[in-house]
Amino acid sequence: MRFATNGTVSIAARAIKKSNAFEFQSLEKVPKLFCDFPLIGTEEFHFPIVVNSFFFNPQAERDGIWLKGHNDPEVKENKKILEDALELYKDLVVELDCDSYKNIFHIASSKMPSTDESYFDKDWYIKTIQKPLRDFLLKQEIVEAEDGAGKKLEESWFPLKSYKKEARESLWQYTFDLFPGAVCKRDDIHQWVDIIWDDINKITFAEIASDIAQKETITKLAEDLQKDDADTFEWINEVGQFIMDEEINLPLFEKHAIIPNQNGKFLLKSRLYRDEINDSDLIEILQLLGEDWNDILLHEEISFGEFVAKKKNDIALKINEKLKNPKAKDQDFKRAISILSEWFDNNPEEGKEFFSETYRRRAELFMNTIEDKESLYKVMRSKTDLSKVAEAIEANPRLFETIEKAEEIYSLLKQYNVKTLEQLRELLDNKSTVSSGNNSLLPITQEILANMGITSLKEWQEAIKDKDLAALYSHKSTPTTDMFVYVQSLIKKAKKNIVAYLKTLNNYNLDNLDESTAPTILAGILKDDKEISIVARPAYNKEVIIYYGSERDILDYEPSELWVDDGVQPKMISLGHLLKKAKIVKFPI
User: How does residue 362 score in pLDDT terms, banded at 50, 70 and 90?
Assistant: First the structure.
């Protein structure tokens, strides 16, 4: 028993202790009003809980109380008792929780009392009792969910009372599948349905259809249901058939897109067709021509509903239409013609039946997709057995990839100025020697020349006399004039960028700049009022080779700096940078 009192009025409800919780019992056949003793006949006075007061003014037959008459003191007293009872009820319910109290719906009824209107003030009851009671209940966590948690009544959803019991339970199940926290405990469905009112969320066939449509795709539906594809299709088939079983629900399929096409997207029923084409090649051909019939064909896993069929002649008409007015003869178009040509070869009778004119023009269509007809004619005139070419490609599907790699190798040989097999063999032999610990001879490239700052053949011939360089680069590899032009442009660009950058620095003065000392040396520069020289180098491939003796002398003996332009921003190369990048931890003094 749960009760509360303020001395003048008391309220009570029946509850039985089971395990660790109290279960409220039904008050349906219990008089709701007591004046020390029950007022027999108030069983239909739908106050949510039993009210007892010695101060009630009952009717003569003791089957009710007077609640009509504005100036009647007994009526006023009765109304005041009910108002006080409502406040006690609120205090009691606030203390309840779904862990400790079950079946709270037994004390949540807010219907209008069934009583004689001659002594019942309906307007007063609605305004003073029913509306405040309902507003209060909506905010309370009195709905037990399937997991035992308490949910606010205003956040919970219930099937319509007008539905049959089986329909209510199905609607509850489908809503639970989608939104487990939105519905009450399954065992409580019908009890809650009996007492809810219009302001409470209702689960309807339309609501379920709308919920599914909002998922938009079968993939999203599967994610929300936490089911695999097979179980998801089983679910949507069950729900779809459930909705469709009621003829009155058929318009819902034209209002809510809940049936998936072959791409898995939900569409309205009238926009879907049953697939009787049964030919993936024809569907792919039309897709390549710009129209995807997977968008309008019913997903093969859907088992409910009747749909108009799309047949082979339907898609053939559409393909013919596309071929007569192609939007673009791109690679997709050519691919479509290629597949269609093969389809004609494999299905000559159907080709004649469904494609007629297109079938007669099949050779012309195919030839029109070949851009390099001259090469084709050469092959044909050469009497090359094309079947053997086809067999070679079929035997080695990566044949063209192999040819492309050969072209890449040719490009690489050109980059390293390797023109003969002898040079390549020498290069590979030297590479092998490197792996054994000896020096290698590498072909000279324009990038290497730029790294060394060499701008002419004469400078290169002098440079190769250096035993260290001679040990690195092949004497047979001769730089070209184009290489030196390229190097000169890089050095000029680097010097220009470095000079421009130095002019932005306050501690550098370039008023007496002298660039005549050497191709890569900037002299006549003052830094902090002290004269220095700068070695300026391009480093666009992130590497510098110091070769010139003049550069070495300046960097060794004179106040000097090494500056490089890497294409991002000129920078000075410090000793710390060299030690770090070259990983030098030990050097002679």
Answer: confident
| Cβ 25 vs Cβ 3: under 8 Å | no
Distance CA 407, CA 401 (A): 10
89 or 522, greater pLDDT:
89
List residues bridging with 143 in a β-sheet: 151
Domain range list for the chain: 2-200, 208-363, 365-395, 442-589
Determine the Cα–Cα distance for residues 131 and 507; give it in Å rounded to an integer: 84
Residue 268, CB half-sphere, CA atoms under 13 Å: how many? Answer: 8
Distance between CA atoms of residues 323 and 321, nearest Å: 5
CA distance 523 to 186: 92
How, if at all, do strands 274-276 and 15-18 pair? unpaired
Q: Tokens in use for 279?
A: 């030919």
Between the alpha carbon of residue 528 and those of residues 435, 506, 507, 514, 564, the distances in Å are 49, 9, 5, 18, 21
For residue 567, with 0-12 CB atoms within 10 Å meaning exposed, 13-18 middle and 19 or more buried, which class applies? middle
Give the tokens for residue 448.
Answer: 């290497």
Segment 246-283, tens digit of pLDDT:
999 999 999 999 999 999 999 999 999 999 999 999 99
Cα distance between residue 184 and residue 157, in whole Å: 7
Q: Is the pLDDT of residue 435 over 50?
A: no
How confident is the model over 490-496, as a mean pLDDT?
85
Q: Give the C-alpha distances (Å, rounded to integers) separating 274 from 201, 277, 313, 320, 441.
A: 37, 9, 14, 21, 72
The Cβ-side half-sphere exposure at 545, using a 13 Å CA radius, reads 15
In terms of Cβ atoms closer than 10 Å to its own Cβ (0-12, 13-18, 19+), residue 248 is exposed
Cα-to-chain-centroid distance, residue 100? 42
Helix, strand or coil, per DSSP, at residue 527: strand
pLDDT digits (tens, 9 = 90+) for 122-150: 999 999 999 999 999 999 999 999 999 99
Residue 103 CB-half CA count within 13 A: 16
| 456 token code pair | 């002419």
Specify the amino acid at residue 516.
Answer: S
Q: Give per-residue burial for 339-363: e unless 16+ CB within 10 Å, then b.
A: ebbebbeebeebbeebbeebbeebe
Q: Which helix (H) or strand (E) holds 13?
A: strand 10-13
* Cα–Cα distances in angstroms (integers) from residue 568 to residues 324, 510, 545, 562, in the given order: 55, 22, 19, 17
DSSP assignments along 577-589, one per residue: HHHHHTT------
CA-CA distance, 451 to 256, in Å (whole number)? 69
Nearest to 176, CA basis, from 247, 123, 225: 225
Where does residue 395 rank: exposed (0-12), middle (13-18), buried (19+ CB within 10 A)?
exposed
The terminus-to-terminus CA distance of the chain in angstroms comes to 100
How much is the mean pLDDT over the chain? 84
463 alpha carbon, distance to own chain's centre? 60
The model's pTM is 0.62
Q: SS3 for 33-85, per residue?
A: EEECEECCCHHHCCCCCEEECCCCCECCCCCCECECCCCCHHHHHHHHHHHHH
